[in-house]
Amino acid sequence: MNIRKIFLPTLLLAGSLSFGTGVQAGDSPVEVVQAFNDAVNSRNVEAMADRLAKGGVQLTLRPAHPGMPAEMPLSSDIQGTWRTVGAVLFSTTESYRRSVKVTNSIENGDLATVWADATTTTVQKAGAEPMVLNFSELYMLVKKNGVWKIAVYADNRQPDTIEVGG
User: Fold this and answer.
1) What is the pLDDT of residues 24-72, one digit of tens each?
2) pTM surpassing 0.90?
3) Going by DSSP bridges, is the β-strand pair 111-124/93-108 parallel, antiparallel, or unpaired?
4) Is 33 within 8 Å of 139 (Cβ atoms)?
5) How far is CA 115 from the centre of its chain?
6) In what order do the strands lie in the sheet with 147-155?
């Protein structure tokens, strides 16, 4: 029996499989960050969440929107936070685009950090002028079972004008 006839199709099939909605073993930390932001741009909440580590942490330095409590907890569950962000953002805007430029990336074993400069352009459904915000972001990633996931996210973004209520 020719081992190549068995091995090659099996290898090709295994290579075409991915975890969830696109995270693959071998994706670099920068590729995971880019895929996360692409998922935000395409309004794909499941693909966003798939890039985030279960049990990960969202750091919130200040309220993101008017109407949010002034004293926000510093940390929250990263997957829950971004699911909420998606629900609020996608239902209150006509369009939202994130442009992220990686400025630094360091990998050390199963830990990695990715710094990026971000520009967001938000068009609210009310027809207001686009709101453009510029800020920096820090992503800390962990590698588990050969797959990088975002475990910590923080930014220095200033509040926007999207009213979310009390």
Assistant:
1) 667 999 999 999 999 999 999 999 999 999 999 999 887 776 677 778 7
2) no
3) antiparallel
4) yes
5) 13
6) 75-77, 52-59, 147-155, 131-144, 111-124, 93-108
